[in-house]
Design a protein that fits this description.
Layout: H1 12-22, E1 46-50, E2 53-56, E3 61-64, H2 79-90, H3 100-112, E4 118-122, H4 125-140, E5 144-148, H5 165-169, H6 180-183, E6 186-189, H7 194-204, E7 208-213, H8 227-240, E8 243-247, H9 259-264, E9 270-273, E10 284-288, H10 290-293, H11 312-327, H12 331-351, E11 357-361, E12 364-368, H13 377-381, H14 385-397, E13 400-401, E14 410-411, H15 418-433
Parallel strand pairs: 3-13, 5-6, 5-7, 7-8, 8-9
Antiparallel strand pairs: 1-2, 2-3, 4-10, 9-10, 11-12, 12-14
Helix pairs in contact: 2-11, 3-11, 7-8, 12-15, 14-15
The chain binds pyridoxal-5'-phosphate.
Amino acid sequence: KSTPNVQPAIGPKSVAAFERACSLMPGGVNSPARAFGAVGGSPLFIERAAGPHLFDLDGRRYLDYIGSWGPMILGHAHPEVVEAIVAATRRGTSYGAPTEAESGLAEQIIEAVPSIERVRLVNSGTEATMSAIRVARGVTGREKIIKFAGNYHGHVDSLLVAAGSSAATLGVPDSPGVTDGATRDTILLSYNDVQGLTETFQQHGQNIAALILEPVVGNMGCVIPTQDFLAAARSLTETAGTVLIFDEVMTGFRVAYGGAQQRFGITPDMTTLGKIVGGGMPLGAYGGRASIMDQVLPAGKIFQAGTLSGNPVAVAAGSTTLRLLKQNPPYEQLERLGNRLAEGLGKAASDAGIEHQVQQVGSMMTLFFNKHPINNWDDADRSDRAKFAQYFWGMIERGIYMPCSQFEALFFSQTHTEAMIDQTIIAASEVLAAIE
Ligand code: PLP
């Protein structure tokens, strides 16, 4: 792994906090992407956040382009979301019994997402994809599933094969502890490869329970599906009786209110959600056609449960977030600012003579240090990680917090202004011009 050629710009309190954390938690973190492993150095420790900004232990302010890896589309600590959380907390933090608020959030999700007629709330994106795969296998009575290299669906054993995101970054596409048995029925294909997909369905179609994909990939950096690819995934699964699952944990309520399926006009059989749907609290969801979802216990026989599922505090945060997104949709503004940032970063890289690609859908994007367009994991893997690390640290020095891996998409929020986008482009111009 290449190491950056710049001095890490992390304050002394963050460095000390990381040292302490490393003696207490594996690698000092509770999720690997946070450790800055891909860019070398010690991570910022965050004290608080407001709107588009993060504040670290050393009192430094950063313009945040991670947004908690996706959820914070309204900006941090949105007053109405905070108020809803506080009010819910006062009424008790968990009952283990049904509430009307859960039906409220379910209604919002069903109304927003074209493929969802019935939904089940869970606690994370991982739980959503794990459960959706089980349901697809349960309803079809089949065992095989298809996933794409560089797509990440959480740390589900059967899906931890050539997963993107931190698995890609850390070079552990197959984790120790995941047995051959768990992945034996997972067929791995290349994203955007219509021919490979078609041939696989010709050979194995009748045995494939589910095809799961990120309908815009965030987890190998931002990679955009071709319309042909999504259309082929839809028609091949329909013919074969395979359940098509869109993993919209990242894209749901992000690339459009109704997710990528609304944006691209392709409706899957099932959808998984996380991140924005929980408004920054631990909440995920999976749903789909009623005929599929009604086979989940206790309506049907497929087991899936959770002590904290539908937790009232998380539901309050998610429900308030969706209400605000619907009342005052930020999507046109995010699109406009996204285009402005993509153009600005592209121009800055061109002016610096750096081979690059900017790939963007609305408010998610990646600046790839790569000569060729990125359509799949093999393309992404050829990006220049050492240049990315220099870029990352240069931006940190200028108070801009970008995702700490070439293989992550950046996200921004409705609280990011045009002036902040322009400030980001100016910083990137300086940083890129200095890259060796
Ligand atoms: N699916 C996608 C597309 C994701 O991006 C992620 C997380 O980044 C997950 C699933 C897993 O979600 P969680 O981290 O909430 O378990």
